[in-house]
Design a protein that fits this description.
The protein is an alpha/beta fold. It has a single domain, classed as Rossmann fold. Helices cover 40% and strands 24% of the residues. It has a 7-stranded mixed beta sheet, sandwiched between helices. It is globular, with a radius of gyration of 17 Å.
């Protein structure tokens, strides 16, 4: 199939992207690692021996960052619809977070451990219809929030990737009663043209 101008532009940007080059040097599986690193540097999300849930983990760069930050005595449980190549000390579940069977599997792996941090880079398959895609993205955000309500310990954090658009403000407002602070973050490594934004629920309240 003939490449479109858009795909050619993306490939050109990707090849020349400084974060892509740095990821190759540092051994990260994607440039997304630097978004999480930047957010952690500012808000100190990670501590040694934490239990971390990584939603939408493939290809694995956020899990790489997480296990490096919390150490081999910590726990990272990663989940994605797509297969992810193994990472030392990271437990991977291949499944759909919207499926109750997958949720049960996560709970089984946790074995009653409370979670210190939930990170979600989940995004829906893009249809190209903005309203549909935005709604699907917010739904994934809501699922991550609901999981955090049940499993995140007091003072734990939730970090989710979202997208500016319809229902975004409503989602942010649903996070606010549950955390001491809610922060919107656009990392410098996030591409300017992208509408992605990260929502940080900082220090869960003991409700």
């Amino acid at each position: 199939m003939k490449r479109t101008r858009t795909s050619k532009t993306w490939m050109s940007e990707h090849v020349s992207d400084s974060y892509v080059k740095q990821a190759q040097i540092d051994g990260y599986r994607s440039r997304a690692a630097y978004k999480l690193i930047e957010i952690d540097e500012k808000y100190s999300l990670f501590k040694q021996r934490m239990t971390v849930i990584d939603l939408g983990s493939a290809p694995g760069s956020w899990s790489q960052v997480a296990i490096k930050k919390i150490g081999l005595k910590g726990n990272v449980i990663a989940l994605d619809l797509l297969e992810m190549q193994p990472i030392k000390k990271v437990e991977f579940i291949q499944g759909d977070f919207r499926d109750n069977k997958t949720l049960i599997e996560i709970e089984k792996r946790l074995n009653n451990l409370e979670v210190d941090l939930v990170i979600s880079d989940m995004a829906p398959n893009i249809s190209g219809i903005k309203v549909v895609d935005q709604s699907a993205a917010i739904y994934l955000n809501e699922l991550a929030l609901d999981f955090s309500c049940n499993w995140l310990k007091p003072n734990g954090h939730l970090l989710v990737k979202s997208f500016i658009g319809a229902d975004f403000d409503s989602f942010v407002n649903s996070v606010k009663p549950l955390f001491k602070k809610v922060i919107r973050i656009k990392p410098s490594s996030s591409r300017d043209r992208s509408s992605e934004i990260f929502v940080l629920g900082y220090e869960k309240l003991n409700t």
